[in-house]
Every structure is written in C-alpha cells, then in structure tokens.
C-alpha cells in the first residue's frame, strides 16, 4: 500500500458536486451562473468530465496516480498560469518587456484610453491592471467585486456592480475579462494561435500534449497577417479554455519546480519562473498568475515556498519545493482541499 492511498481515497470520496455531464443539470455545472445577465451564459464549448483523479511526482518521477490521469478535462483557471508561461516565452523572444506599457507595443487593441495607457504587462500578470473596457463583448464590470476562495479581502460589494477603478497596479481583483484581454494581447505578440505556441514549445518538449486543446468563444476570432485566429480564454468561466490531462498538468508543474528547465533545456527562462513565484506588492499571496503560500494562510500544511495553480471545479496543481514534489488533483470539492493537502503532506514527510 502506498503512503498516498489515503489521500487519493479522501479526494475520491469528496468529488465536486457538479454533474459529470454539463447537459444533465446545467444549473449545477460551472461558475457563469453568478454573473449578471446577459453575461451568465456559456460562450464556448464544454464537455463531459471524468471523476476525481490525480498525479503525484517526487524528485522528478511519478510515484502515484489514481482515477483517469490521462483523460483530458477542462481545467478552468489553471490555464491562467499557462498564459504566464507564454508571456515568459514572449519576453525571451524580445516580444515584450515586463515593465513596459502594453500600449507602447500594441496600439489599437484596447489599451489606448487615458486610464488603460498606463497598464504594463506586469499589471496584467498580477491581476492588478484595473483594465477597463470590453473584450469580445464582455465588459470588465462583469467581474467587479468577484470573490474567489483564496482571496483574503472581505466582501466589498455585489458581483457585477460597478465600482470606482483605481490606478493600474494599486488594486488586486480576480477578473477573467482582463485575463482574456491579456490573452488577446499575447496573440497579437506571437501572431500565431496561442494553443499552437503552447503545444509546440511547452507540452511536446515535455513529452505531453495528447488530446490537449485550448478553445475560445464563438465570437473570439481576429485576423492577423491575413490569417483568421481564435483568441482563447484563460479559463473555462464562460466555456472553452484548456482541456488537458492530469499527467500533462504534472509535467508543467515539474517544469516550474525545475526552474523552467527540462532535460537540460531551458524552456522558460529561469529568471521568469523566479518572477512568477515572487509576491506582488499589492497582493503578497499572488505572483505572475500563480497563487503563493508565503504566510501559510492558504494551506497550513504546505510549505511557505509552495506555489499553486487553481481552477474552479476542484482543480489544484501544487508545487512543493521543500519536498521536491508536484501534486495534481482534479474535481475535488474545494471545501475538502485543506484535508487533502494535509494527507499528502503527511505522506510526503514519510
């Protein structure tokens, strides 16, 4: 019997209470229902999911898995971290400088107003941009006052109510419309569909990519250099987003644990990976589209060096440097995530 059996059994006994088939009971599936109308609808494809599954790697090797670790399921906001990896690749290619204003490099795509002109790539990557506008018909206001599980701020208003915007860089808000605007900006930098860039430059070099897809909305198409391309969201809030296996999620987690290097090849610059897990000044629990456990508030049983990718529906990728471990769990009810982390921590400690 493996030391991780208890954690896997615990996770499997506490599956997220969403139907596995989105069509079976649509009102109990997803997170879009909490949005103000007419924005409380799906705009991209969704598909049937599997049950609870997971993968655990220690010192670079997979030591445990359960469920269907090779099944590609939609992964919600875990995809945000993938945008941060693409941004690091863009900086390495000279396509962006993290501290520069987006409007200086990409005029005409929504960063030209007096308010938005001051927004830098760093603001977008730390969710402190306060970007104002519409991205494919979705206004930033839809996500005003949004609450997510690990946001320590007390409730300040009702979701979707307009609030006064702050100066870019001074206020943290989890806002999927702004994330989608970042994705659109990255598409204009690469001038190639982001799913192609990610598959060719990250997943395939890691030995993954089977059944991977990253889908956009029905109306999120743009034309660049005469080619029609779909801009993709940084999550599955309104459908679409990344479908990926737990094993591939673990491969990406291992890449971050190893400082962006795989088999001696630097896939993402080491300095960029370091920046991803550096707390931002406005929200010390957040880096570059990565959650941080710097004060132990997120999970008391994880080290203070831990980083996390989270997605609605119970998706967690936990990078635990002190134990040289990567832990992936999918479709776990978030109310029981602390119990799962505790059991895995105990098993890792031996």
UniProtKB/TrEMBL annotation:
<feature type="region of interest" description="Disordered">
    <location>
        <begin position="15"/>
        <end position="36"/>
    </location>
</feature>
<feature type="domain" description="Beta-lactamase-related">
    <location>
        <begin position="51"/>
        <end position="329"/>
    </location>
</feature>
<protein>
    <recommendedName>
        <fullName>Beta-lactamase-related domain-containing protein</fullName>
    </recommendedName>
</protein>
<dbReference type="InterPro" id="IPR001466">
    <property type="entry name" value="Beta-lactam-related"/>
</dbReference>
<keyword id="KW-0378">Hydrolase</keyword>
<dbReference type="GO" id="GO:0016787">
    <property type="term" value="F:hydrolase activity"/>
</dbReference>
<dbReference type="InterPro" id="IPR012338">
    <property type="entry name" value="Beta-lactam/transpept-like"/>
</dbReference>
<dbReference type="Pfam" id="PF00144">
    <property type="entry name" value="Beta-lactamase"/>
</dbReference>
<dbReference type="InterPro" id="IPR050789">
    <property type="entry name" value="Diverse_Enzym_Activities"/>
</dbReference>
